[in-house]
Amino acid sequence: MSSEAGDRRAALADLPSVDEVLKSPESLDLLANFPRRVVIQSIRNVIDSRRRAILASQVADFSRSNLFKDIAENIDRLLSFSLVSVINATGVVLHTNLGRSPLSEGVLDNVMKVGMGYSNLEYDLETGKRGQRHVHTGRLLRDITGAEDAIIVNNNAAAVLLCLNTLAKDREVIVSRGELVEIGGSFRVPDVMASSNAVLREVGTTNKTHLHDYSNAINEKTALILKVHQSNYKIVGFTSDVGFDELVSLGGKHGIPVMYDLGSGCLLDLTPVGIRSEPSVAEIIKKGIDLVTFSGDKLLGGPQGGVIAGRKRFIEKIRKNPLARAVRVDKLTIAAFEATLMEYMDTEKAVKKIPVLDMLFQSPSEIQSRAGKIAAGLEMQIPKGLIEVLEDSSMAGGGSLPDTKFPTFSVSISPSPMSVNELELSLRKGQPPVIARIKDDALILDARTIRDHEIETVINAVAAALAGQ
Ligand SMILES: *Cc1c(COP(=O)(O)O)cnc(C)c1O
């Protein structure tokens, strides 16, 4: 036997059993402070990891004092939450990976009220009989969008799936080739179409689709004409697509409904804040589109959800589809949705009260002042030369407003001697994590998405990271 194998065998034999560790006085301390199953799990995890380390001939400190340090760290890890709040310093307001739209305190108050007790979720207080969960958001959605009826499902992907399955199962849906899009994270129009058992009938070309492309494709199997918002990309140059008016009149002539997967779904007229490229849902409904689908947590600024708005007779059919039960929303979502929609009843205040709209449409001077505060705070703690406030631009994110650049201000930090990658990592691993961008060897903190109450935390996080703490 080689001496190495002998050492390894000795080290393995030295490993204590879970029971032995559990009976030690140090464990009694742990058991007094933490749940028994967590302590046992951690002891097992640490012993297992030592066994693996020995077998892999890794050199480590296998001492008894270190054993309890490792166990304590492991307990800490087992009892920490996986989903935690982070500070978004990317400037991307609708950041899909960071949970898209933050909710206001007022909205969360309502979630708490409804969630803490019982509610009339499916109970009609007038008649004392069973009610419908859709009524709680239906009225507000009708008022705000002007649609005859509307329901909410789990997300917009589910909304599209449900519409296609209800109206076009085993029949054809006409879509322009320029609109067969993929939206980040696996929503692809042809795939959703296949999952819904509708048959995709592609027309036109990537850059140009004409009205006659649609009309030539109509046959006895046609169930629906679908238009899809291109969301996260833009075809520019030699292009043309067919407008709502023409599609609606074509559909009307043949008795075929027209649906629009709008994606983002803006509930406000954004022209007062300088956006002309994104018509509101109400404007689209007014054009006579039969069904519109959009997300709850993009420009709308609410919880995750998918709205289906349009003609009553279609919505009724959709509601009765067994799939609707599979993609229905829970009471917490409805509570958050209703409270968010309620904010839209005051059109003037909505832009300030809904966090997503507030962050997107705050004035550049407000952002500049926040960036200035962050930079000034940092300059008190770290060498001046490393910090600069830069004029920059941010994107809305979430496939919303792809052709709009929002003027912003960022704090740029060029760390030294620490590398910018080390700084980024350290901030990301901090508590709370601060998520930033790297550009040209500098760390960029975009002040658009840093909230006022987070300024202090960001300053301290950067200072601590730069100090190597
Ligand atoms: C974002 C988007 C979707 C997916 O919406 P989710 O709410 O994320 O499911 C579908 N279609 C379009 C056009 C989109 O922009």
Overview features:
globular; alpha/beta; binds pyridoxal-5'-phosphate; 4-stranded antiparallel β-sheet; 7-stranded mixed β-sheet; 469 residues
Can you give a write-up of this model?
The chain is an alpha/beta fold and 469 residues long. Helices cover 44% and strands 16% of the residues. It is built from 20 helices and 17 strands. The strands form 5 sheets. A 7-stranded mixed sheet has the order 4-12-11-10-9-5-8. A 4-stranded antiparallel sheet has the order 13-14-17-16. Strands 1-15 form a two-stranded parallel sheet. Helix 16 packs across helix 17. The protein is globular. The two termini are 46 Å apart. 40% of the residues are buried. The model has no long low-confidence stretch (mean pLDDT 94). Pyridoxal-5'-phosphate binds next to helix 8 and strand 10.
Please outline what is shown here:
44% of the residues lie in helices and 16% in strands.
How are the secondary structure elements laid out?
Elements lengths: L2 H12 L3 H6 L1 H9 L2 H20 L8 H15 L8 E2 L16 H12 L6 E2 L4 E2 L4 H11 L3 E5 L2 H13 L3 E5 L5 E2 L3 E2 H7 L3 E5 L7 H7 L4 E7 L15 H11 L3 E6 L17 H6 L4 E5 L10 E5 L1 H9 L1 H5 L4 H13 L3 H7 L1 H7 L2 H16 L7 E8 L11 E8 L6 H9 L5 E2 L1 E3 L2 E5 L8 H12 L3
Parallel strand pairs: 1-15, 5-8, 5-9, 9-10, 10-11
Antiparallel strand pairs: 2-3, 4-12, 6-7, 11-12, 13-14, 14-17, 16-17
Helix pairs in contact: 4-5, 6-15, 7-15, 16-17, 18-20
Pyridoxal-5'-phosphate binds next to helix 8 and strand 10.
